[in-house]
Protein: Phosphoribosyl-AMP cyclohydrolase
Organism: Halomonas alkalicola
Amino acid sequence: MSEPFKALERAPRDSRHPLTEILDAVGFNESGLIPAIAQQHDSGEVLMMAWMNREALEETLHTGRVCYWSRSRGKLWRKGESSGQQQHLKSAALDCDGDTLLLQVEQTGPACHTGRRSCFYVALENDEARITAEPLIDPDTLYGSGKG
Amino acid sequence: MSEPFKALERAPRDSRHPLTEILDAVGFNESGLIPAIAQQHDSGEVLMMAWMNREALEETLHTGRVCYWSRSRGKLWRKGESSGQQQHLKSAALDCDGDTLLLQVEQTGPACHTGRRSCFYVALENDEARITAEPLIDPDTLYGSGKG
């Protein structure tokens, strides 16, 4: 864990620290990415997990519209740019060791490219996996092609 | 995305699929790990994100007690084995492309090694980072040494 996050462990509630120092200490992985969990701010539903590089994180914090890094496409992915299903940021938090993000968002419609509200629909139960949700929208109507 | 997860995209709600086939298709990364998000099952609070290898995932599903893979220690990490703050599994789900897990858990006390309930206490706000939570328990009382 980097020194700035170690120092924050005993920082009191509501203490404030320069954002730039914190961003400089974020534990991006060897590909320059950090996992970002998106949670619907009012219902608490976990919608998806995707990845951000520093540019995506800074854009998200500045614009309030969630921007990820698409590993499959190798470029910034402004959530909803092809599907219309945008994520608006309510708040963002790093974890104790600065290598995971939790985003509180307002998600328009489905977060998942399959048209489901959440990506987490494959439940692991005893000796079976069970599909736990139906699409809200036919995915063929969400995309010309591609994902987002 | 692997073929089994592609096939599940259009599977109907409550359809069931052999667990072994699904586990064989999980998108473990180049280190053999998958990120696992732990959410308190009743409050919806996101507590932490850690990593599992296949052995940790299978142990968790079999025993109902959450077991991660500690990247820093290079071994299985049965959450709470040193701190006493265990996680009991209520349910587990994979996401649409089979490379992230969401665990619904019953967390005893704090999930975070700092003694806080959740690891996500470093809020990113405008030009500052703000500490949003106090420890429930002094971390010095949680551990002799180490983390867990």
In short: Chain A touches chain B through 57 residues (CB under 8 Å). DSSP finds four helices and nine strands in chain A.
